Amino acid sequence: MPARLVSVINMKGGVGKSTTTVSLAETLAMHQRRRVLVIDLDPQTNASIMAAGPEKWNELREKERTLDFYFESYIVQQRPKPFKSLIESKVSDLRGKPDVALCAAAPEFRIVERDMIESFVKRGFQIDAIQKWICERFANGLKTVINDYDFILIDCPPGISLFAEAALIAADAILVPTIPDYVSRLGLITFRKRALRLINERRGGASQLMVLATKYDESFSLHRSEAQLLKENLGDAMFDIRIPQHVDIAKAAEWSETPRTFEQKYGAMAQTVAKLGEEFVAKVELAPAL
What we know:
The protein is built from 11 helices and 7 strands. By secondary structure, the protein is an alpha/beta fold.
C-alpha cells in the first residue's frame, strides 16, 4: 500500500510542531514497526536537525541534498536531482536505528520560495498557476517514494505558504499540534473555517483533521477547560492523549552523538509518546485513504 501522507501544521509557531513530527516518527518506527519518512518543509530546519543531527544535516546541505536545491533547479531551468536522492535513511539517534528517513530543509528554502514567485510573476503567471505548478512538482517527487514508506510526515512552516499549501493539498490527513489556550483555539477555528475549507476545495475532497494538545499543563485550569472544549467541538478529531509541558520532551529534541534507547531519550515521557503513536495509527488507518 502507498504511504499515508500526513501534514503537520499550525498557523503559529512555538507549539511543538517539529518536536511532535519527529517524536511521532520515532515511535511509529520503534513501536509500530512502520517505515516513516519525515519531509521538512520549514526553513527553520528544526525537524531536520532533530532527526539527523547538526553534522549530518550540514553534510546534506553541502551535498545539495535539501529541498531548496530541488526546487531551485526548476527555477534556473536545470534538471533537478531525483527526489529520492534527497532522502537520507536511518537518521534517528535511537539505538538500533529505527526505520526513520529524512528529506531535509535548509534556511535558503525561504529565499527559493520568494525567488520562485518573483520569477513566475515576471513571466505573467497568476498566483493560482504558481500554486498549481508547485503542487505538481511536489506531487511528482512524492510519487517516486510513496511506495517505500507506510507514513510520510510533512513538517510544514507556521502559517500558510505556497509550499505548505501544496503539502496540505497532497495530504491524506492534517495533524495540528496546539497549545490548549484561548488564542490557539481561535486560531484553530480560523484555520478550519477558512484555510482548511479552501484546501479541501482545491484538492477535491476533505482531508482527515487531527488535533493534538501540546505543552499541556494539567495544573493549569485554563488548559483543562480549553482541552475539554476542543474535545467537545472536535470529537474524534481530537486526540485523547495530551503531550505535557515537560523537560524530558525538550531534552529529547536535543541530538545525542551516543545512540540511546527510546526510554533513555524520552525519559518520563516515553510512555506518553508511545501512546501517541498507538492512537495516531488507530485514527489514520481507520479513515479511508484519499
